[in-house]
Amino acid sequence: MTGNKDHAALAEVFNKDENRVDWHDETLWFIRKKRDLAVKKIDNWEELRETASQIKNNVLSNLSNYLQEFEAKASANGVIVHWAADAAEHNRIVLDLLKQQGITQMVKSKSMLTEECHLNEHLEANGINVIDSDLGERIVQLAKEMPSHIVLPCIHKKKEEIGELFHEHLGTPAGNADPQFLTETARQHLRDVFLTRRAALTGVNFAIAETGEFVVCTNEGNADMGAHLADIHIASMGIEKIIPERKHLSVFLRLLTRSATGQPITTYSSHFSKPREGKEMHIILVDNGRSIQLGREDFRNSLKCIRCGACMNTCPVYRRSGGHSYHYAISGPIGAILAPNLDMEKYADLPFASTLCGSCSNVCPVKIDIHDQLYKWRQVIVQKGYAPTAKKVSMQAMANVLGSSWKYHVAGKAARTVMHLAPFAVNNKFNPWYKHRDMPEVPERSFGEWYKINRNK
Amino acid sequence: MSSRGKILATVSKNQPAYSQLPDISFLKGDDDNTVARFIDTLTTIGGKVILVETIADVRFLLLDELNNHARKVTTVPLLGDMMEMVNKRLHDPHTMENIDYAVIEADLAVAENGAVWVTEDKLFTRVLPFITQHLAVIVKAGNVVPTMHEAYQKIGDSTYGFGTFIAGPSKTADIEQSLVLGAHGARSLTVFLLS
Description:
The structure holds two protein chains of two kinds. Chain A is α/β, with parallel strands linked by helices.
């Protein structure tokens, strides 16, 4: 879909339409402001964040026990538990479950894990029709795109474009872009889907080791409509979604939506414990690189993520480059620290798509040190030789100059002269750094020279 | 080795040194005005709250409302004579597809987010509160707790096949952040608060 372009090249495409960039930026900042309002209503917000962070630290330190406890409790509840080492195994398990029942159509609610695993493509290639039922996901599915945001999958789309898609695929009148009308159309269309599908797949927000139940949060009610009408409910979850006890849900459910959209809670927080009588419920515990990330001391904190999307809404780079520029299922700052774990070479550009301003770390409800991890990934990526070429060349030159005192002084003087006499040498369209920037005025002399003259005064 | 064995072995090898689970008992809400805060929150997120003294009041208020709907269903025995009573699990939940109005009971409500907690033993059929076009929930005002911390204290270690917090009507803002009520679940939510 995005070919081999890196974040900078993809962002450049997104940046061609300046009005759209401004609109995208403002929409996400509006959501960030809603988050701030919601957070200020909670007296002990910081204690809540700290508690969530500590619970997650405990989870990571005891994950193997919690996974086994969860498996035992869920199995005792009548749920069938599967383990998938990677995306391919996860997809194979889903396909096998459907084939065993002779099912060729499935309805799915939002699951970023299945995006990560490219489940839809795998099922479609094997003759299974999959319909995404979250409105935003249905829209990007009709547009044959990936979600551009983990909570707001079609935040990059204008309503007119959505009206056009609905006209083409769902037969709405051309030119109608009224959100109320389009949502009602989707409701009718998807209700028919819910009523006719024998299999439903959902994601998992939290899984409780103590009880074996799992919680799925939606505003639309699509996960419940799918799961409660199907013969077989498959829930896919990353192994890091475990929390120790039921009461810990209180901490995470208070944090999740306030951080995500500024709502006090999602409309539905559904706790699935046992299958319906005579029906099947399956849970697939998926690793796909998570156990490796757990062993990377500098990056394991990324596994604490509860997928609220607050880091995206606040990120100045995300807001101005769009989710698709990240060319990974999970975009934004958190995606940029998760992706290199899976493929350091392919995603080498992502940790550089940040100003390291730290806003992401400040809003993160589980206190992941996101910007520190981005900085650390840069060092790992450069050391392993995966840095983007332009960056590699300029950094080698810089290391050479900074490593030698005479080269440094000569280079400084030369740069000052060039900027005086020929500012266009830096200030031109061939220098990507200069885009949308103004150079500061160049001083007469370096600090070193100034100090020599002034130290005796 | 099986994937299970491989995953657990790698996790065991890579997980950091044990980190203590924090005590969360210090997290508590404010007990003042919980009912007023519940009403305020639920109203803000698109729900409606009606204060009533007895079930007789609910019956009286429903008389008018029910005239607007074709198929109305309840799980509440005291309303069973005025609506279709569903007090056991339906074999085929798809037959609920044309329900216009449903009245159910909840054990618990939460002031900070406007949610009510309902469990399968009171729903009989899980899909009911989602598939109905409009939903009404009866809950005792004395069961409104300040925050989710008190809510889970009340839920304790009770067992249920399915339980859900419902906060307001189903909604979406996926199209340009325009809020639309009535995505896939109930288009409206009314809570009768029984004093």
